[in-house]
């Protein structure tokens, strides 16, 4: 699959549920209305869809959400998809999780061929963790991280950089992550979906964070890539890697290799645009995959050049109406 800008699409992110057991303040409103369960694709349908993408050239697949590990029987889907790792059709199967259910699933993830996972954690302070996630329990996430490392999973932590909330804690979070052999990636908050807070108050440009970090640490740009949008530096003092995901201050769309599938079978060709393609109807219209394959090809011809996110006091509306939990980041 090659889009109109010559970018090869080799990475599929699948949001397996829009539901989550946390309500991170920058991600969701507290009283979210989730999709009725009957609108969700079954696990068999998700497997069928992802398999068609693998047959069409996807080499890396990430399960996300909502919280992927709260979807009922999610390990059944992981197990099914893992056959593509065994056959060599897929290079990597991974997952982005808030870690709350990780202790339960870490060993089985490894057994299914998952090698690396991303765990989202914005602060190491239990009270602040509860505040930012509204419903989360840091001890439970820590137990998940312990279990994941014990099972042999490599972990990258993701932290959304939030002005006045965790900006002064990020150096400590980085030291802690690197001390435990985990990479850390910091992310700029993106204007997706209505939330209860004002995003202008939360937005911290990572260019500023980098300048602040450089007062204390020696950061060296490195060409390390994981197939995602992060740009990495090596931190001399910790010996670890720090990634920056900068959708606001530095557009990284020229190297975009990704498309995103939701749990209802809608394909978003860009995280930051509204245009989407319905894959559920062509999938359900016939037993074979020809219609589905055509619909995917047509969607790829509509992949836009990039996103245009703006966060400022004059731009009140989010860039896209859906929350990050629909497409999974
Ligand atoms: N529940 C899983 C988790 O916590 O990682 C997967 C889904 S979550 C939507 C994926 C990532 O998106 C998390 O790291 C989360 O912090 C991040 N995120 C959510 N809303 C965001 C926003 N508006 N801007 C930037 N990152 C956001």
Structure description:
This protein is α/β, with parallel strands linked by helices. The protein contains eleven helices and twelve strands. It has helices at residues 43-55, 74-87, 102-111, 126-133, 138-151, 170-179, 199-202, 206-216, 280-285, 290-300, 324-327, and strands at 11-15, 60-64, 92-97, 116-120, 154-161, 183-188, 219-222, 231-235, 240-245, 258-261, 266-268, 276-278. The protein has a twelve-stranded mixed sheet. Strand 1 (11-15), helix 1 and strand 2 (60-64) form a beta-alpha-beta unit. Helix 1 (43-55) packs parallel to helix 2 (74-87) and helix 3 (102-111) packs parallel to helix 5 (138-151). The mean pLDDT is 94. The structure holds S-adenosylmethionine (SAM). Residues 20, 24, 26-27, 64-65, 67, 96-98, 120, 158, 160, 187, 189-190, 192, 324-325, 328-329 line the site of S-adenosylmethionine.
From the structure above, extract its key features:
329 residues, alpha/beta, twelve-stranded mixed sheet, 11 helices, 18% strand, binds S-adenosylmethionine
Radius of gyration: 19 Å
Using the alpha-carbon principal axes, give the shape: globular
Helix content: 25-40%
> Would you identify the regions where 5 or more consecutive residues have pLDDT less than 50?
none
In short:
By secondary structure, the chain is an alpha/beta fold.
Q: Helices, strands, pairings?
A:
Layout: E1 11-15, H1 43-55, E2 60-64, H2 74-87, E3 92-97, H3 102-111, E4 116-120, H4 126-133, H5 138-151, E5 154-161, H6 170-179, E6 183-188, H7 199-202, H8 206-216, E7 219-222, E8 231-235, E9 240-245, E10 258-261, E11 266-268, E12 276-278, H9 280-285, H10 290-300, H11 324-327
Parallel strand pairs: 1-2, 1-10, 2-3, 3-4, 4-5, 5-6, 6-9
Antiparallel strand pairs: 7-8, 8-9, 10-11, 11-12
Helix pairs in contact: 1-2, 3-5
Bound molecules: S-adenosylmethionine.
S-adenosylmethionine (SAM) binds at residues 20, 24, 26-27, 64-65, 67, 96-98, 120, 158, 160, 187, 189-190, 192, 324-325, 328-329.
